[in-house]
Design brief:
The protein is 45% helix and 20% strand. By secondary structure, the chain is α/β, with parallel strands linked by helices. The chain folds into two domains: 4-129 and 309-324, 2-Layer Sandwich (Nucleotidyltransferase, domain 5), CATH 3.30.420.40; 135-302, ATPase, nucleotide binding domain (Nucleotidyltransferase, domain 5). Strand 1 and strand 2 (15-24) form a beta hairpin. The two termini are 27 Å apart. The chain binds 5'-O-[(R)-(carboxyoxy)(hydroxy)phosphoryl]adenosine (KG4) and zinc ion. The site of 5'-O-[(R)-(carboxyoxy)(hydroxy)phosphoryl]adenosine (KG4) has 20 residues, from helix 5 and helix 6.
Length: 341
């Protein structure tokens, strides 16, 4: 098809982002991708504060868009459509993005495309790899945990997901329990390297139940219980205790993710497994998932980490796919705090 140049906007959580993506016969090129984080604003509160996030998005979106256009070396006159995350996410931030996108679309006379944030994550492997539909997608991050069959830019079948915490959230909580720094995932992985995974017997939540749903909050509680028993017995934790707990936790997460993914791959019969999200950076987990794909005779695709975390290039890419499929929205495009795939 023809070449499309799409401006994307993302503001559904704590990153304010804008990007310009060009898609043509040769593939997709990211001309610019600006991400303005807010973690410094929320650090003191131990989590994202919705009101602070909304105000920061409203202040920074404009800057992000201007920088993205500048870096890409284009003006709005060269943009073919504007794509914006319309949900799910924190309503204030999503609203800020949708309102700005409408303003730009109306002012420049551009088509407007509302993008589901989870769809943007799920389509990411196609941005960097020649990956045909359908494929099985495992999305594992600090906020998400889903197994989806992806059949098209708007065709997803959800096979399972977490019923409580996301795995990254569990890594972060375990790190906090053991006095390790945030983000917890890399810290726990570092400790686990020197640990013995079999000293502590941790549960394998939901593994004995059919289906592809997952659970991680019980695992975190089990780590807490072991920690408190050690403290009661010996007055504190040794470096080795900490390493062994991390190794046991990581092994449990890897095992349940691998087994549920194995089931989902069998159920979907998709020829490829794509894994995305911050937790996919974990070497033990990645290795377990690669083995699952290999055992099933499926291809394994992992997009680069900088595209797995929140950014607007993936929103622009999803927008391009939707636009080619004939989708665009009117000025009545709504911000949807909840928007299941
Ligand atoms: O996708 P992501 O960057 O952000 C969102 O969730 O939006 O994921 C961040 C999560 C954090 O919870 C972090 O602890 C986890 O991914 N993470 C890891 C590793 N690196 C990051 N978890 C396990 N092992 C890692 N090496
Ligand atoms: Zn996200």
């Amino acid at each position: 098809g023809e070449t499309l140049t799409i401006l994307g906007l993302e503001s559904s959580c704590d990153d304010t982002a804008a990007a310009v993506v060009r898609q043509g016969a040769a593939g997709t090129e990211i001309l610019s991708s600006v991400v303005l984080g807010q973690s410094d604003l929320h650090a003191a509160f131990g989590g994202v504060v919705p009101e602070i996030a909304a105000r920061a998005h409203a202040e920074k979106l404009d800057i992000a868009v201007r920088r993205a256009l500048e870096t890409a070396g284009v003006t709005l006159a060269r943009i073919d459509a504007i794509a914006v995350t319309a949900g799910p996410g924190l309503i204030g931030g999503v609203l800020a993005g949708v309102m700005l996108a409408k303003g730009i679309a109306a002012g420049a006379g551009l088509p407007l495309i509302g993008v589901n944030h989870l769809a943007a994550h799920a389509l990411t492997p196609r941005l960097t790899h020649a990956l045909p539909y359908p494929y099985l997608m495992l999305l594992v991050s600090g906020g998400h945990c889903q197994l989806l069959t992806v059949r098209g830019p708007e065709a997803f079948t959800r096979l399972g997901g977490t019923i409580d915490d996301a795995p990254g959230e569990a890594f972060d909580k375990v790190a906090r329990l053991l006095g390790l720094p945030q983000p917890g995932g890399p810290a726990v992985e570092r400790e686990a390297a020197a640990g013995c995974a079999t000293r502590f017997a941790l549960p394998r939540p939901l593994l004995d139940r059919p289906g592809c749903d997952l659970s991680f909050s019980g695992l975190k509680t089990a780590v807490l219980r072991q920690r408190d028993m050690l403290i009661a017995e010996q007055g504190g934790l040794t470096r080795q205790d900490r390493a062994d707990l991390c190794a046991a936790f990581q092994a449990a997460v890897a095992e349940v993710l691998a087994e549920k993914t194995r089931r989902a791959l069998a159920a979907s019969a998709a020829p490829a497994l794509a894994v995305a999200g911050g937790v996919a950076a974990n070497a033990a987990i990645r290795a377990a998932l690669e083995r699952v794909a290999e055992d099933a005779g499926a291809a394994h695709v992992a997009p680069p980490l900088r595209l797995c975390t929140d950014n607007a290039a993936i929103v622009a890419y999803a927008g391009a796919e939707l636009f080619r499929a004939g989708r665009h929205d009117g000025m009545d495009l709504a911000a949807r705090p909840r928007w299941p795939l």
